[in-house]
Amino acid sequence: MSRSQSRSAARLAAVQALYQQEMEGTPTAQLIHEFHEHRLGATIEDVTYAEAEVLFFDDIVAGVLARREEIDGKIGDKLSEGWTIERLDRPMRAILRAGTYELVARPDVPRASVISEYVDVADAFYDKKEKGFVNGLLDAIAKDVRG
Question: 25-28: long-range contacts (C-beta < 8 A, 24 or more apart)?
C-alpha cells in the first residue's frame, strides 16, 4: 500500500474516531487505543479496514481534541451568518475539524492534498453539495492559515 493510501485510510479512521468521541465522550488515549486494537487494519463484519498510517492517525485525533476550541473558532469564522458549528451534523464537524487541524498544524502536508482528501472523506458520507461545502470551507481556512 502506498503512503498516500495509508494516509487516506488514517484520515477516514480519524474522522470516524472524532465522530465516536463526540457521541460517547471517550477519553483521547482510550479512543486511540481502541482504534489501534480494533479498527486500523482490522476486519469487522467482513469489511477489512485499510492499514492506516498509525502515527498520522494519532496526530490528527489527538491534535483535534487538544485544539478543538481553536479549530472550532476557525471553522465558525467561515460559516454563513447565523450558522454555528453546533448546527452542523456530527460527521461534518469531524471532517471539518480534521481538515482544519491538518491545515493549521501540518505544514508538511500540501494544502491541496488536505482539501482534496477531506472532500474524498466527505464523499463517503454525503452527496455532491456537501462535498462542495467541505471544499469551500477548507479552502477559505487554508487562505487564512497558510496565506
Answer: 28/61, 28/62, 28/65, 28/66
